[in-house]
Request: fold
Amino acid sequence: MRQTIRPAGPLSGVVVLPGDKSISHRYAMLAALAEGDSRISNYSTGADCHSTLGCIRALGIGVEEEGATVTIHGRGMHGWNQPAGDLDAGNSGSTIRMIAGLLAAQPFVSRIFGDESLSKRPMDRIMKPLASMGAKIGARENRFPPLTIHGGRLHPIDYTLPVPSAQVKTSVLFAGMFAEGETIVREPIRSRDHSEIALREFGAELRVKQRVITIEGPAKLTGRELVVPSDLSSAAFFLVAALLVPGSHLVIQNVGLNPTRSALLDFLLSIGAPVSTPRIECVNGELIGDIEVRYAPVRGGVIERELTAALIDELPVLAVLGAASEEGLAIRDAQELRIKETDRIATVAKNFERMGIHVEVTPAGMNIPGKQKFRAAAFDSFGDHRIAMAFAIAALHGDGESTIDNAEAASVSFPEFWSILARF
Ligand code: S3P
Reply:
């Protein structure tokens, strides 16, 4: 699908976004292991979170969907059936890595695969810790999907994450629910803590002390009513749009503001963006609130170390903002960007080139000079949802009509993106 984007006038009004992708995956997987029903409202409409629902259904768990409300009929920690066929994780790294921790503990063999992009993403980061808990996992070239998981009895481990990854942390904690005793995960840098919050909400015994998380197994989970906040990583596109187009003023409602995710707002504030959160409340252990943003020129700056990890999903659209900023933007320590749905350093640079934006690419980041002119261009998503949306936002600031090929990729996390954008 090709989308055409014309330069926008000021963006103003209220924006309502779909549910958070990270939280939706976790709620669905834990609900599928809980005793009794869970009702999850504002479940992500994205294809990735539907890949998770597809896997759960294939494991014999009842799932009903009514709009964005999902009811999951959990059958307890030992209620999953061996799937009749292979499990399909689609494009979703979160699905395959997190559910692998649960499949590793099942008394059956399962096989899980993904699309072309997922088939190139490394799984050894979860295979190693799960193997040291006693799971046997086979993979293409010992590293890539499909994974064949010979589940069984697991024992607890004390594991220091070699990469800052919430997906890996979650995979080990999820497996730890089935191991008798204390499974400990140590993080080099604090990553998003939705799993820790969700595990507690469902009734697991979990302790967090700085960057050390301990889960007590065996866990027992109880079904519940949950509300998913709207996705801050989706909000990022509209925050940047408002900061690119003079005169804009947006309010984005009921967004997840978990402190391990909201570095985006702190970063925007630090470079001079008028961003505020006039209302915040706590729902199911997660902070939710409205974000208000007005246009202002932003300074630019440096994103490195912990900040890079905290902004990892927002970097493509922040790179776009960097090219319009006063002083430019340097992104460092972002080697993880190279193994996302695409090599996002390469795909951002390719689209920048098409619009005449200068960028110096480094092995783990990029240096983007500021105050650059955005020329209209023919972009490609390269099959990556965040690249499709980041360059649709760039196109709003272009000097004419731009196009985005393979625009349907946005549906992976945000199917409503194009219709919301069309309002402006
Ligand atoms: C996610 C963690 C991050 C992020 C991904 C979602 C999660 O991946 O990029 O979009 O929900 O835990 P890593 O764990 O690979 O850093």
The chain has 13 helices and 23 strands. The first helix runs from residue 21 to 31. The chain has a mean pLDDT of 98. The domain at 21-227 is CATH 3.65.10.10 (UDP-n-acetylglucosamine1-carboxyvinyl-transferase; Chain).
